[in-house]
Structures are given as C-alpha cells and as structure tokens.
Amino acid sequence: MISEIVLYVRSAKVPKRNVQVFVPKQGGAGASGGTLTKIMGVPGRTYSYYDRETVIEYDFVLPEDQMRMVEETSRLASEHGFVLTVVDLTKESALSNWRFNHSKKIKTVPALVSDSGEIAKDTMTKEQIEAFLFKAGKSAT
What we know:
Helix content: 25-40%
Shape: elongated
Order of helices and strands: EEHEHEHEEH
Strand content: 35-45%
Largest sheet: 4 strands, mixed
C-alpha cells in the first residue's frame, strides 16, 4: 500500500504583467429592447463587437525556505515510497483556507501531514524530513 503525505505551503500572489483581452459584447437598437421595438414591434438591429479590457496576470511565488522544503520533500518522498501532494493555500478556495486556518492541529505553514495522522510544522531540514517519513512509514504498516 502506497502512503500519501501532504505538504501545505502558502505562496505570495505577485502581479506579473498586464494583458489586453478582448471580451465579446452585443450592442445596437434592439439589443436591450429599445423604444422602437416596444412601440412598433419592429426588431432593432443588433451587432457584435469586442471590447478591449486590461487584466492583470499574477504569479504565485513560494518563499525560499518553503521552496527548498518542497524540493527536499519531493525527492525524499519518492525515495521512501510516498506519494507527495503539495497544496498551495493561496490558490485554494476560501472554504479550504478557512478549514485549514481553523484546524486545531495545524497553525503554521509549511506543514507536512501523513495519511496516518502524523503532523510536522514549520520549515524542516533534510534530516527532520527523513525522520518524519520514517516515522510515518512505520505507523502506516
């Protein structure tokens, strides 16, 4: 049986660039049911056009300590036979964030959680990650 571990991280949402997008719109006399259409029953003329809007694209950047921990945990998890799932709380829904923030056991990120219930909080060294995986592997069997 393959065990799973979940690594919770929180990235920073930083603006990357502004992008011009074209949004389809419809206009014309009959598009909103104008006065002529209501009085005489004559259908108005509608047309389609594109309106240009500026949208900000964002990038999600992990702090250096969390990025190092993701890389170490990924490498060590595969060596020890675990499946790693990385959950970025910044990208998650408001409900997932609320559930994580109100958890009685986990208060800080990064947090490493095994499917057997083991929890490790804060940034960990390579040796601490290996010890966690060894302990999680023993409790899974």
